[in-house]
Write a structure and sequence with these properties.
6 helices, 178 residues, alpha+beta, Rossmann fold, 29% helix, single chain, 4-stranded antiparallel β-sheet, 6 strands
Length: 178
């Protein structure tokens, strides 16, 4: 099992958002967390990646407890995130966005690099020198996913991966990721 979330409780100040949530993500499988807006999907993601602290419960990744690790250490252990709202760097161009956080902490034998992510999302190739805020929503989402891949994660988490995108762009992104 790659990820195990066991009975976590997460709060925003005094307001509890997650109540004993448990889930598992198995290696080599696609797992989806479904629910209406406000049901805790993003809170779950933020708890897993260390942006929010769980008050109770445990999170295990590759048989190691990560519940209380800071976000940067969790990322270095191999969890990548394409966040809700894309959160690309608007004042960096596409190339700079891709290489700004690139790393191979897990020593992958076939690491994601600039050439590989551009092969996956060729639409970004002609936009390398455009600023992040000059891209369409679909291009920004491709950039957010490509940037997450540049960390060479073992586990890639996509939060609202195709929210607000045209059906053709959504289809393209899902085809690339399968």
């Amino acid at each position: 099992m790659t990820l195990a979330v066991r009975n976590i409780a997460t709060f925003y100040g005094g307001s509890q958002a997650l109540f004993g949530l448990s889930m598992e993500v198995r290696s080599g499988k696609t797992t989806a967390l479904l629910g209406r807006n406000g049901m805790g999907k993003t809170t779950t993601v933020n708890s897993i990646i260390g942006n929010l602290r769980c008050r109770r419960g445990e999170i295990w990744y590759c048989n190691e407890a990560i519940t209380h690790l800071p976000a940067f250490k969790i990322a270095r252990k191999g969890i990548g995130l394409a966040p809700e709202g894309r959160q690309i760097f608007p004042n960096l161009n596409v190339r700079e966005n891709l290489i700004a956080t690139a790393a191979n902490y897990q020593q992958s034998q076939n690491p994601w690099n600039l050439q590989r992510v551009l092969a996956l999302f060729p639409q970004l190739t002609n936009r390398l020198h455009h600023m992040g805020n000059q891209l369409s929503g679909g291009e920004q989402q491709m950039l957010a996913i490509a940037r997450a891949l540049m960390l060479n994660p073992k586990l890639l988490i996509l939060d609202e991966a195709t929210e607000g995108l045209a059906p053709l762009v959504r289809k393209t992104i899902w085809q690339k990721l399968h």
